[in-house]
Amino acid sequence: MPQSNDKKLIFSGIQPTGTFTLGNYIGAIRNWGPLQEDYNCVYSIVDLHAITVRQDPAKLRQNTLQAYALLLACGIDPEKSIAFIQSHNVNHAELSWVLACTTQFGELSRMTQFKDKSAKHANDVNAGLFTYPVLMAADILAYNADLVPIGVDQKQHLELARNIAARFNQRYGEFFTLPEPYIPKTGAKIMSLQDPDKKMSKSDDNPNACVLILDDKDTIIRKFKRAVTDSESVVCYGEGKSGINNLMTIYSAVTGKSFDEITSEFAGKGYGDFKLAVGEAVADHLEPVRTAYAKLIADKAYLKDCYTKGSESAMKITRKVLTKVYHKVGFVDQR
Ligand code: AQP
Prior knowledge:
By secondary structure, the protein is mostly helical. Helix content is 52%, strand content 7%. It has helices spanning 22-27, 32-35, 47-50, 57-73, 91-100, 105-109, 112-120, 127-141, 155-172, 217-225, 242-255, 259-265, 271-297, 300-329; strands at residues 9-14, 40-45, 82-85, 147-149, 180-182. The strands form 2 sheets. It has a 3-stranded parallel sheet with strand order 1-2-3. Strand 4 (147-149), helix 9 (155-172) and strand 5 (180-182) form a beta-alpha-beta unit. It is globular, with a radius of gyration of 21 Å. The model has no long low-confidence stretch (mean pLDDT 95). The structure holds adenosine-5'-tetraphosphate. Residues 14-15, 17, 21, 23-24, 27-28, 150-151, 153-154, 188-190, 199-203 line the site of adenosine-5'-tetraphosphate.
C-alpha cells in the first residue's frame, strides 16, 4: 500500500455493529473508493467504538470480519489504501487517553449522539459511550489526517476533534493538523424507510426501516414498497414530504438523476411505480457489491493477510505520531 508524501491523508472508519445499511453506503463508504486515486487513504473497521453498546462477543467477531470483507467489496483496494481493524492498532487507544485529558466534560455532554444513544440504551450508559468522540478524535489525529469523509450525523464529532486538536496545539505547540469534514452533496443523511424523520441506522430494531447492502433483490424491493410516504401522489421534492424526499435522494444517488429529472420521469404515475423503480435501481446498484462480498468472505486467509498488513502499516504511522505526542506532554523518552 504505497503512501506518497505529496498527497493529503484521509481517514475514515465504520463500526462493525451489523451489516452496513444503504445509509452507510451512500453517505460514507461508496465515496471512499474513488478517493484512493488522489489521496493517501486509511480506512478502519472501528470495533473499539462498537463495544460502547453491548455486543455479543461471537457476533462481534463475525460482524467485524464481515465488515472488513464489505469494505473491500465496496471498492477499497488494500494495495492502494491502508485497511485495518482498529483494535489491531493499540495506538488509537493510547492517544485517546492523552486527548481525553485535553477534552472538557461539558463538550462531551453536548454531543447529540451521546444523548440519543444513552436514551436508547438507558440500562448501559457507560463511560465509553460518553468518551466515544475522544476515541474518534484519536482515530483521526493519530494519522494527522487532512480530510475525513463522513455522513452528516458525524459532523458534530468531527468539529469536536478539531477543537481537541486546536487545544492540544495551543497547550503544547503546533502539531496536529485540523481535519476537515468531507461530506457528500447527495445522500449525506439517508433516513429510515419507516420513520423518515429519523436517520437510517444499522441497529434499528425494525428490519423494514433500513436496507442492508447484502439484502437480496426481492427483500430490497419489498422494503421500498413498504416505505412510509405521505397522502399525496406527486413525486416531487418538498416540505412535509420527508418520505418521498428520502426516496428521491436515494434514487438520485444510485442513478445520478437530478430531482427535476426524477419528477419528470414519474409525472402522471403514482408512488407505487416510484417505490418499485427505487427498489429495482438500488438492488441493481448493489448487485456487484454482493457478488464481490460472497467471494471475499469465502477466503478468510486472504482477508487475514490484508488486515494484518493493514494494521502493520497503520501502527508504523501512528507510533511516530504518538512518540512525538508523549514527548510534547512531558513523558520521559523511552530511547
Ligand atoms: N443514514 C445515514 N446516512 C448517511 N450516512 C450515514 N452514516 C451512518 N448512517 C448514515 C455514515 O456512515 C459512516 C459509518 O457510520 P458508523 O457505522 O461508524 O456509525 P453510525 O453513524 O452510528 O452508523 P449507524 O448505521 O447508525 O450505526 P449504529 O446503528 O451502530 O449506531 C459514518 O461516516 C456515518 O456518518
